[in-house]
Amino acid sequence: MPNIRPSSDLRNKYNEISEFCHKYSEPVYITKNGTGDLAVMSIEAYEKLVGKFELYKLLDEGLEAAKDNNVATAEDVFQRIERELSE
Prior knowledge:
Blueprint (H helix, E strand, L loop, with lengths): L2 E4 H6 L1 H11 L3 E5 L2 E6 L2 H25 L6 H13 L1
Parallel strand pairs: 1-2
Antiparallel strand pairs: 2-3
């Protein structure tokens, strides 16, 4: 169940919100005048979320390359890496 708090809690109960975010690795949704306004999360949860987006982007690029038949064999890739490392 999402943790929804009024914007005044961000100012008045910051430590409580911070502890929740770190303990449960979930965002706290902040409302302003009864309407959703912000999502607050720990930096660890944020970095994990951003990492997932980056991974999804790379996977999507790989699938697109495979669809366009723009791929290389594992052997070719390893040979290229070995050449670059020896230079």
